[in-house]
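Data availability (excerpt). All sequences and predicted token strings are deposited with the supplementary files. A representative entry, Alpha/beta hydrolase fold domain-containing protein, is shown inline so that the format can be inspected without opening the archive.
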Amino acid sequence: MVKLDNGLKIWLDAYHQGLTQLMQSGYVATVEAIRDGLSNLTATCVTDSPHIARVLDTCVAEHTQAVPVRIYHPAPDRPLPVIVFLHGGGHMAGSVAVYDPICRKLSKTTQHIVVSVDYRLAPEWPYPNGLSDASIVIEQIWPLLEQQKLAYLPTLTLIGDSGGGAMVATLSADYQDHPDVSIDNQVLIYPSLDYTMSQPSVAANGKGLFLQQDKMQWYFDQYFQHGEDRQAASPLFMAKSGRMPRTLMITAEFCPLRDEGVAYVQQLSALGVDTEHFHLDDMIHAYLNLESLVPGQCGATYQKIADFLTT
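Structure token line:
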């Protein structure tokens, strides 16, 4: 029988006890509180921030929209393949700054250039604004690196966690037949792939295990504000072919999003897409943001991504 990591269980019990006391005192979650919560949690638990030889902030512009990005190049004297990273946060929280240590670890461990995208967030900027920002960066990735005089290899990987994973899977489907954009790999870290919340693990793991089912519903209601068809917007239900990118799926046993990740792997495998599945049977959603509690599992995850990208 699989069991939750003991140290994580102790932390979770205290976390949810505090949350219950807050709710009983009349506390109502706000967008600002959600954003501050993710920022503070990550800053507290992800304290190892590796040195990267070159880090720069710039923007990618298209018409009237300028999308901020942060670029990490671990070895500026040699060309390296490229990762575009889309952070998690339920489409409402997270930022380039919050995910800076995670992107540094990705860049160092994989020896890839990482381009982290500060896409617009709901509710101020609902669906599909964040996706549009990510598309701008993907379509201009090579001119961007040339403009910054960064040595690169023209191999493109998209990586995202949680809501960022949803965006990655959506963009991979959107670009699978595009004549000018080639996505070689995608890495999906406990991704949100079913906005209808119809998979069994949503209910099974949706209470007392950090990511709550009712909070997921609230996130999605902030993201979809104009009556969009949530099934059609879900990567799990999008049309796919054997031309989808080579894929690494990372899931956690006690995550509400576990089953949609498993179903997605089955879909791609049936289509003949080169797909790997890395499952942690003692972890919860967002464990990369809880690194000090589970350093071994986080280290294994970064190494798995590096191994996947070098084979």
